[in-house]
Amino acid sequence: MLCVLVVDDEEWIRLGIVSKLKKSHLNFQKILQSPNAEQALELASKEHPDIILCDIRMDGMNGLVFSHKLMELLPDTKIVIISGYNDFSYAKEAIQLGVVDYLLKPIDTPSLNQALEKCVRQIEQTRQHRNALETIKKAQLRKTLRSAASNLLSQDTPDYTQLFSAYCSNGMFQAYYLYLDISCSLSADTLDEHLSRLFHQFILGVNLVYYENQCNEFLIALYLSSDEKDFKPEEFADKLENSLCSEIQYITPHQYTFGISMVNPNLCQAIHEAIFCMKHRVLCANKNRIHPGDIAAFASAKTDFSFLSDFKESLIRKDQNRLESTLKFMYHSIEESSICYEGLQNIYLRILVLLGEYCSPTVTQALQMPTEIYHFSSVWDWIDFLKELLTRFFETEKPLSVEGDSRLELVGQVQAFIQENFSKKFSLSDIAQQQHINYCYLSLLFKEVSKVTFQDYLMEIRLNHARQLLQIGTYKIKDVAEQSGFSDQHYFSKTFKKATGYSPKEYQMTCQDGNCL
User: Fold this and answer.
1) Nearest-angstrom CA–CA distance, 309 and 233
2) Which of 28, 159, 201, 223 has CB 3.0 to 4.6 Å from 207, enough for a Cys bridge?
3) Which positions does the record annotate as the modified residue 4-aspartylphosphate (predicted)?
């Protein structure tokens, strides 16, 4: 939102300009006014207006002197000079100063709007350039910190000042490890936006480190000085979780997990604890946040592995009935044993080996099956995935590229559903339930066939529709957002600008000028 300041010693002219500004489509957040340049300088130093409309001839300090002083004080503020005289020397000097435009009185609305739009474009360009530089700077810093963290965590006596410039020996560490499902998309830059907006007390490289550790897995580590005794880990997680869920629209609970460590004087231990907690998501199916206390019940219990030979036999014989009974027995054996994560991962790896030995490569490779079992939201999700995968394998061993394959038809049906219903609220989980298909299987299959995640595919469809409506030029931004499947106008504007480089309003104006992209 923008702030504009009107400076003119003639009240009726000043009020007339203010009236036009209030009716402007640019929706200024603040419209300030001043009767002279001296007061205007004082007001500008407090309010930092984005745009100033200034008369060139006023008692005391004139508009040109004011503009020169203002540019020294607020170099990013855009100035439009107003004059009752068509004096070329004034105009020339104003242009040399770097003002955006030079308007003659009486000011008509079209000329005023044109000058304001020119100012807004320059402001947006400046902000975009500054934001781009800041994003690059932070990305480089994250890369440096990630490399430093990798080295430090393997040392017996790490120097934590390489990660946290605020570190002193009596501080503590808190680690969070965020996992996001493959159907979701989140970048480290987006995570940075949320952290910066929510937690002003934490600064990257000072008392905060975060980076994408693996695809869709993010480490967040906080350094807590002895003065921060009131820090509450759950409140931090609450704010971040709520904010991210608004970013990733329609995300369902099983699609993300936070592993949260205890506060610890040893950063390495805190990080490993957070990661280990997160991996237990497959055993803690109903939890989005997992703490050390939540995983204490999972001991190194022994499990009956006899089902592995039955599983192997069902693969060899392609026996659907035997497969189903084996998978049920396997599920109950695991659920009743209180098996620890390492034990479950061992079973998972044995299953992968059997799939590699007795199934065609299309089964184990085409869907890029994960190497660790925590990528499944629960033990049942994994078992159900195996059933879906192997049932289709028993039916056909054709690769995904073969025309007429039911798997390709399934993805085509999902894409068609998206194209017909993109304006409504739904998730891939909803579609999986409608189709009676395992969610994880459908998620992996969709990405393999479409070459993009479900969320990215849906977002592109919605943004393309929004572009079409904006090109027409008669729709309000709020209506464009709703008709394109965005329930929140602010989120729509933010997403649209991130994708196109233009705000919806700027894009609409560009199209009206005949320069539509």
Assistant:
1) 45
2) 223
3) 55
